[in-house]
């Protein structure tokens, strides 16, 4: 790849970033032809940049012949960047866990998915719903993901999603217009819900907060569906209270935008 000192070095970096942003929301990868079409560049140019990014670990070969996906370097960078992000919200997570007796977790956006970075599991119930640290979910069908999507404008939120929305359960929203209406409701109420949209038997409610580092975080309460209907109002009220009372180190997304 051309060095920074060369006249077109900045242009090459900008084009590489453009390719990475396109692939960020396509977890299954794209072919070089598809990439070239998306960024309106010659296929030969895309091929040279992709080859350099693969050599550095920023891209990798996809499962289908000729496709490329985001590479392992980004996973390591993301882990390093988010290791301590959850600490400012942990007191509020523990408050929710004590009030509700349910599992509480914190997550960040990771491409077209949302990644759990900290979990406080419930000790109050034998039947528990728990997401593991490092586990990821599609943005469009998890309460945490929808809370983070709703932190952005309607157009920007839909641009963060892959071209095809994966169906994980019969309740998964795969129609973009229906999802857009759902996100509009989240912006209005401040709370996002997933009622068995990413896993049968698991329901969740979530809010989005800005961390002190200005990174949006999702804080969610994860509940077995058979208990969720009984405590949904209590969960919602507790999340809205945290959203309102987060204090000077955090602010609600609506206040920060």
TrEMBL record:
Keywords: DNA-binding, Transcription, Transcription regulation. Residues 10-72 form the HTH iclR-type domain. InterPro entries: GAF-like_dom_sf, HTH_MetabolicPath_Reg, Tscrpt_reg_IclR_C, Tscrpt_reg_IclR_N, WH-like_DNA-bd_sf, WH_DNA-bd_sf. This is IclR family transcriptional regulator. Residues 73-256 form the IclR-ED domain. It comes from Nonomuraea monospora. The keyword Transcription applies. Pfam families: HTH_IclR, IclR_C. The lineage of its organism: Bacteria, Bacillati, Actinomycetota, Actinomycetes, Streptosporangiales.
